[in-house]
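Today's session is about reading a structure prediction critically. Students often jump straight to the picture, but the first step is always the sequence itself: look for stretches that repeat, for charged clusters, for runs of hydrophobic residues. Only then move on to the predicted structure, which in these notes is written as discrete structure tokens rather than atom positions. Here is the chain we will use throughout the hour.
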Amino acid sequence: MKLPVAILAGGLASRLRPITETIPKALVEVAGKPFILRQLDYLRGQGISRVVLCVGFLGEQIEAVVGDGSAKGLSVSYSRDWPTLMGTGGALRQALPLLDSQFLVLYGDSYLPIDFGSVERAFLNSGKPALMTVQRNADQWDKSNVLFVDNVVVEYNKRAPTPSMRHIDYGLGAISAQVLADENTTEPFDLADIYHQLSLSGQLAGYEVHERFYEIGSHKGLAEAADYFKGGE
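Below is the predicted structure for this chain, in token form.
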């Protein structure tokens, strides 16, 4: 794979308190191992070589554990979004000097057992400025927020999902740096709003996946992820 991966790991993780009062979510142990190390292991296994970690609250702890990534066979650099949080979109825009003109985006609390190479190829072949992986969800894992028809993202709307939406944002995206560079604001902004705007203008490619995702954003999700890793070890 040739595209670098940006990992959004700067949130306050309020749903995981009290665990995350003294450590960032990325360092929460899942089946005996900090989650970020599990993420980096599987990214390396996918053939990814470069990772940019967008860190925020207690981000220095992540840097102390991960370092430059060489222990994992990766090149890891850091973009700090603290003490003023700029939102997921703002954090990515801040990290652009460390990234390429196109890159993959992953949330710091997601473990996605899919083939990243296929997602990269779909993005590069789409000719569109961004791609979102989606999964048919029907409100099973969380509120469905994507109208996906005939392999097309008709609308993604995290803030005001409609009853006709059956899919959900799976957690892996691809985007062109120019989309973020063009965002003309000094205020915080979210990647979700960028995706929403792109979907309405037919500029958001879609890639459907069928494997369930794991996330550690909540205590329930953390328990499910721990069960998954214990079963595989």
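Discussion point for the tutorial: The chain has seven helices and 13 strands.
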